[in-house]
Amino acid sequence: MEAALAGSRARAEGPEGPRERVARWSAGYRPAPGRPDEFLGPDGQPRGAWPRLLDRLGGLTEPEIMARFVAAERHIRDAGISFRIAGDQREHPWPLGCLPLVIEGAEWAALSAGIVQRAELMEAILADVYGEGRLVADGLLPAAIVAGTPEFLHPLQGVAPPGGHYLKLYAADLGRGPDGRWQVLADRTQAPSGLGWALENRMVLARTFPDFFQDLHVERLPAFFQAFRDGLALGAERADPRICLLTSGPYSSTYVEQAALARYLGLMLVEGDDLVMRDGGLHVRTVSGLKRADALWRRIDADFLDPLELNPASRLGVPGILDALRNGSLVMANMPGAGLVESAALAPYLDGIARRVLGEPLRLGHPRTWWCGDLEGLAHARANLDSLTLRPAATPQRGAGRDAILAGPVLAAERERVVAALRDRPFDYVAQEAAPLSTMPGWERGPDGLFLRPRPFVVRVFATRTPLGWQVMPGGFCRVSEREDVDPIELRLGIRSADVWVLSEKPVAAPLIGAQAAPRVRRVGGHLPARAADGLFWLGRYLERGEAVIRLVLAHLRSVGDAVGADISGALDTPAALALRALLHDLPTARLAQEALAGRERPGSARSHILAARRNAAALRARLSGEAWRVLADLNEFLSLDPERAFTESQLAGRAERALSQLAALAGLTHENMSRAEGWHFIELGRRIERAINTGAFALAFANDEATPGCLGVMLSLCDSQISYGRRYLQGAALDPVRDMVLLDPYNPRSIAFQAEAITRHLADLPALAADGIPEPQCRLATRILSELRSGEAADFDAVRLTALATDLERLADGIAARYFPAGPNALRPEKLTGLA
After folding, report:
1. Are 232 and 331 in contact (CB under 8 A)?
2. Residue 31 vs residue 768, higher pLDDT
3. Collapsed DSSP state (helix, strand, coil) of residue 450
4. pLDDT tens digits, residue range 550-603?
5. Into how many domains does the chain fold?
6. Helix axes 709-718, 678-702, angle to 10 degrees
7. If pLDDT is split at 50, 70 and 90, which confidence band does 10 have?
8. End-to-end alpha-carbon separation of the chain, Å?
9. What would the pLDDT profile of 305-351 be if each residue is shown by its tens digit?
10. How far apart are CA 337 and CA 155, in angstroms?
């Protein structure tokens, strides 16, 4: 990077202008023979919209361009935009390539017409297959293709989709064929992903190159997303429907994009355990009771939706949910069974079906394909194995059969296996003409600066069903390979993402989402799912645990008083630091502090608690602001210390103090920026209960009957009360005044009494179980704890009383969990007050 910047600065100081700069970038650009390229046509001349983009880029010096790249990467990191590879629990930073795919508006219009036609065709095929079955009866579609695919769901045969449409969202993976025309590489109708990534890509590049969007007349996306949201509600029974996005959870490879979409579109992000069937309808378990779900955008495969009628091993779906489709009480996008038309075996028959159903040929072609279940197709595949690619007929293919996918041209060593597969189960495969993917320009950094190189790409284009028909998103989700020999069919390491810009000839309006139809004014937040409330509650508890450990480490490093080193171990009986107790007598001061702060593998270390908080936050992305996520990222960075390096006590104290500052910033964001809805109450309840528990444990260790002045000083330090104590009492630390300040003082925000008052207020603001005027058990317990603290005296709180108080606080936490967080498919929600609204 530094060498590239140095070379760029040298040129920027010379006479090189925008045209010379663009010429130098593209001087070595050579598309591979036989591969269509977006930038250079067959005659070697720039084509399409690329000259417009590169001319605009040429107006920036390379240091300016690279500075924008760095800013984009920093924003991705700070915002926590990431993805997972299937089977890998690690999160990887989102690999955005800063050079977009650009397409002229006229070419995009023709492409969009082909996408709309194809979406209509897929809708017609699904309606026929699950309806009258005329395509099979008339010989236009082999029955074995329908019956043989695992995506044909027999329980839905004859079930009309609520709202009248099987598809609410259609996507197609596109590339240019050998003749340079766009062709469909794959249809995506099961649960198309990538829409959220396209949105994230656009938001990042809009920050990186804000001036380019206006200068180049880039088509905007908000109108499409508003139309998509309206389309999700089509067919719902209620005028103001509740729309949910069903996810498989935070370990899904696309969870971050799902959370982004839920937040952007105002959808309720739910998992299977959040949903339950009651009285023939789908409902969300919320802290306010069961709430009706009118529309569901599923992001899990249809086979996992209903363990009663589909896959009995599924833990992702909702038992009985298919009944809601049969009785028309639930609209779903896309309808279960829609994945049938993803089958590659349909390709040879699509043009004939289009001519019959739509009265016209296909506008968008696809690679020439032969289904091996057809005798002529099988004969052709066998005769041309060396020049064809074999693919599974059904997509996706699960289980051991996934290993049978053969990418061609087939090598001689695999020929025997291929021949055996075509002999035993030929109908499981299709053969396709082997053609390399088309290419687009991508940046590379060399010692002399930036330059362009051709890179293989696949672009996913989306169309949504709206009240006015199909609408195509003026953009897409592009995947670009960093190597010419790796196809970017799916996102993995070595594949980068790119935004897609459609360039108009005229200035483009920039509407905001929601501008098309203003919603009814309201001042209440959406209902909070029980699972999300649980996550927020534990987010607050883990943050407070992390803070308690950090404060313990600072007290240990500062060595306040002679007895601190011996007595601090008693404070490690807190839940925040229990597992660290054995470290005290085995490690020197600095090493102990380093392990307590940053020991990733040490249960009870500050970093382990912050990582636990981050895992909870990851499951709450749709409810947390970008600022909160950035603070969590910075906090984790401050506590990420190289275990092989020895840090000094002053360095460790500095890290701990910065971590406390970040925790204070996060608390400030929660207090000042978070809406006072149910979610805020739960995160505050978690913090207050955990702070009270930790303060009680600290008092047992440092404010017991044998406490020395040094220990009492540690107690004040742990509760951040030294200044208040010094202003109130002129003499040094004494037992009863210290106990009163940290346990009973209602004006001290660190005292247990202060926490008890806050807990009582938060519980009073949460939904009640029944409207009978009788306080619920957790409210009665909180009131009793508060009464004891209000009526008690400092001298009364010896070890026995403090231990009993800690037990009551733990019981209170368990009572809140039992009331608001029941989990599992059989957990019932209280509905006496709220009903099923």
Report:
1. yes
2. 31
3. strand
4. 998 888 887 643 444 434 444 444 544 443 444 444 556 777 788 888 887 777
5. 2
6. 170
7. very low
8. 58
9. 999 999 999 999 999 999 999 999 999 999 999 999 999 999 999 99
10. 10
Q: Which residues, 6+ apart, have CB-to-CB distance to 731 below 8 Å? A: none
Taking the mean position of all CA atoms in its chain, how far away is CA 825? Answer: 24
Residues 645 and 540 in one domain: yes
Q: Contact 122/151 with Cβ under 8 angstroms?
A: no
Please choose, from the candidates 657, 659, 189, the residue with its C-alpha nearest in 3D space to the C-alpha of residue 395: 189
Neighbours of 528 (CB within 10 A): 25
Q: Which band of pLDDT confidence, cut at 50, 70 and 90, is reported for residue 402? A: very low
Structure tokens belonging to residue 740: 């009163």
Q: What is the pLDDT of residues 11-63, one digit of tens each?
A: 444 567 888 999 999 988 999 888 899 999 888 889 889 999 999 999 999 88
pLDDT of residue 269: 94
Residues 6+ apart with CB under 8 A from 45: none
In a domain, 190, yes or no: no
Between 259 and 569, residue with greater pLDDT: 259
In this structure, of 156-170, 181-195, 377-391, 522-536, the range with the lowest mean pLDDT score is 522-536
Q: How confident is the model at residue 448 (pLDDT cuts 50, 70, 90)?
A: confident
**What secondary structure letter does DSSP report for 162?**
T
- For the beta sheet containing 369-371, the strands, ordered from the edge strand earlier in sequence to the opposite edge, are 369-371, 429-433, 388-392
CA dihedral sign of residues 658, 661, 667, 673 = negative
Q: Would residue 5 count as lying in a domain?
A: no
The CATH number of the domain holding residue 428 is: 3.30.1490
Closest CA to 544 of 637, 437, 670: 670
If asked whether residues 606 and 749 sit together in one domain, one would say yes
d(CA 680, CA 287): 13
CB 519 within 8 A of CB 575: no
Strands (E), 287-345: 289-292, 295-298, 331-333
**Token pair for residue 462?**
């989306």
Q: What angle do CA 36, 40, 41 make, to 5 degrees?
A: 65
- Give the other-Cβ count within 10 Å of 349's Cβ: 19
Give the residue-averaged pLDDT of 481-487. 77
Give domain status of residue 649, yes or no.
yes
CA gap 731, 540 in Å, rounded: 36
The residues, any chain, with a CB within 8 Å of residue 102's CB and separated by 6 or more, are: 38, 48, 49, 50, 52, 53, 216, 500, 501, 502, 503
Choose among 551, 375, 564, 438: nearest CA to 185. Answer: 438
Position 397, amino acid: Q
Query: Which range of residues forms the domain containing residue 563?
Result: 530-820
* pLDDT score, position 82: 79
Mean pLDDT, rounded, of the chain: 85
Mark whether 534 and 422 lie in a shared domain: no
Mean pLDDT of 486-496: 75
Report the C-alpha gap between 363 and 380 in whole angstroms: 26
Query: Of 618 and 55, which is predicted with more confidence?
Result: 55
Beta strand pairing call for 369-371 and 101-104: unpaired
Return the percent helix, strand and coil in the chain, to nearest 5. 50, 15, 40
Q: Is the pLDDT of residue 834 over 60?
A: no
Give the CA distances from residue 695 to residues 551, 574, 689, in Å, rounded to whole numbers and listed in that order: 11, 9, 10
Claim to verify: residue 563 and residue 680 sit in the same structural domain: yes
Q: What is the mean pLDDT of residues 118-140?
A: 97
Looking at the domain assignment, is residue 627 inside a domain? yes
With tokens 């040879």, the residue in question is: 348
| Domain's final residue, options 416, 433, 450 | 433
Q: What are phi and psi of 321, to 5 degrees?
A: -65, -25
d(CA 680, CA 765) in angstroms, rounded, equals 11
Tally Cβ neighbours within 10 Å of residue 52: 18
Spell out a b/e string for 498-515, using b for 16 or more CB atoms within 10 Å of the CB, else e. Answer: bbbbbbbeeebeeeeeee
654 and 800 inside one domain: yes
Beta carbons of 184 and 118 less than 8 angstroms apart = yes
